[in-house]
């Protein structure tokens, strides 16, 4: 099992040094070209999917989780080993969700013009 951390490009030379040292020591850093913010989480997720497609096509499964999520990897592996999960996306599906136009998680009309989202996977893990 391998773990990688999707992070934004460094803003300062100090950050770049820290990321380079982490990457050289553990080989677990993937830097994407995005701002690390709530508003850009969709882009970060897409960036991770693109990276996985390019670099991990040989692995049987991958998982995306936020840094504040605790995952019981042993229970997860048991589930994956005992269920046919080929070509599956496992998540908690959200449906009938209205688009938030104000506040911390707002989505601009220019980004998504509809009033309701189609069914989607909840964030976090």
Automatic annotation (TrEMBL):
It holds the Pfam family Galactosyl_T. Its EC number is 2.4.1.-. The keyword Transmembrane helix applies. It is a single-pass type II membrane protein. It is an enzyme of class 2 (transferase). GO terms for molecular function: hexosyltransferase activity. Transmembrane segments: none annotated. GO terms for cellular component: Golgi membrane. One of its GO terms (biological process) is protein O-linked glycosylation. Keywords: Glycosyltransferase, Golgi apparatus, Membrane, Signal-anchor, Transferase, Transmembrane, Transmembrane helix. The keyword Cytoplasm does not apply. This is Hexosyltransferase. The lineage of its organism: Eukaryota, Metazoa, Ecdysozoa, Arthropoda, Crustacea. The gene is B3GALT5_6.
């Amino acid at each position: 099992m391998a773990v990688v951390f999707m992070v934004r490009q460094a803003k300062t030379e100090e950050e770049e040094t820290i990321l380079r040292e982490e990457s050289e020591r553990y080989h677990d850093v993937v830097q994407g070209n995005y701002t690390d913010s709530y508003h850009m989480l969709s882009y970060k997720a897409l960036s991770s999917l693109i990276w996985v497609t390019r670099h991990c096509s040989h692995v049987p499964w991958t998982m995306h989780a936020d840094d504040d999520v605790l995952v019981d990897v042993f229970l997860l592996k048991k589930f994956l080993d005992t269920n046919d999960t080929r070509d599956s996306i496992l998540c908690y599906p959200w449906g009938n969700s209205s688009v938030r136009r104000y506040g911390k998680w707002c989505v601009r009309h220019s980004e998504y013009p509809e009033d309701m989202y189609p069914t989607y996977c909840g964030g976090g893990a």
